[in-house]
Amino acid sequence: MALVIDGKCGEAVEDVRKDATQTNWAAFKYEGKSKIVLGGKGSGGFAEFRDSLPDDQCTWAFLRMIAGDQESKRAKFVMVQYNGPNLNGMAKSRAGAHKPDVERVIGQHHVFYFADDPEDMTEELVMDKIKKSSGANYDLGSNAKGYQSQAGDIKASAKSAYLTKEKETNITKPVIFC
Fold first, then answer.
1. Spans of all domains in the chain
2. Cα-based distances in Å from 70 to 86, 138, 142
3. Considering only Cβ atoms within 10 Å of each terminal Cβ, which end of the chain, N or C, has fewer?
4. Per the CATH hierarchy, to which homologous superfamily does domain 4-140 belong?
5. pLDDT averaged over the chain?
6. What are residue 83's phi and psi, to 5 degrees?
7. Helix (H) or strand (E) holding 9
8. 174 vs 69, 163, 166, 171, 178, CA distance in Å?
9. Any alpha helices (H) in 18-173, and if so which ranges?
10. pLDDT tens for residues 149-167?
11. Is the dihedral angle over the CA atoms 50, 137, 78, 20 positive or is it negative?
């Protein structure tokens, strides 16, 4: 039987994506063997999401997490598959086959995170995966040592240099065309 994903799941994904809402997670659960419905959503962050996970079901989820360094914070979207530790083998297998269908509803995301043990479903592990996928991890360098931004000083220095150069190169005498 074909998988059916309730339309409220897509609406919840859009809610998580919107900058104008506080919603930062949406979870989807199975209703029977071939239907996925909205299991919950919230604005309480990873801890609230984590507390909503059942031990005997597969939960699909879409999270909005804030990552970056002190110079630049960005929203990162995470698709999650959590197979509770008491989920039976057939349900695990079925859930794995449904990943492409769920991914079509969720759409683009930065990271896919899978866990089947509550100890693996931590904010630290998810953030670590986000950092590794981001290409540059500035926290390993200057930020870890109390780096203070020099952006304002650099901008002021560049402006001063520009104004000086402009004074040197401006035409000060009238231009006469022949």
1. 4-140
2. 40, 9, 11
3. C
4. Severin (3.40.20.10)
5. 89
6. -100, 110
7. helix 7-17
8. 52, 21, 17, 8, 13
9. 45-51, 89-106, 123-133, 151-169
10. 677 788 888 888 888 888 7
11. positive
Q: Which amino acid is at 54?
A: P
Our measurement of the distance from residue 32's CA atom to the centroid of its chain's CA atoms, rounded to an integer in Å, reads: 29
The strands making up 35-42's β-sheet, listed across from edge to edge, are 4-5, 35-42, 25-30, 58-69, 72-83, 111-115
Instruction: Check whether 9 has a pLDDT greater than 60.
Output: yes
Tell me the per-residue pLDDT of 125-144, one tens digit each, with 9 for 90 and over: 999 999 888 876 655 555 55
Spatial separation of the C-alpha atoms in residues 27 and 16, rounded to whole Å: 11
86: CB partners within 8 A, 6+ apart? 55, 56
Contacts of 34 (CB under 8 A, 6+ apart): 1, 2, 3, 4
Residue with tokens 């150069």: 165
> Would you state the structure tokens that stand for residue 77, as one six-digit string?
């979207």
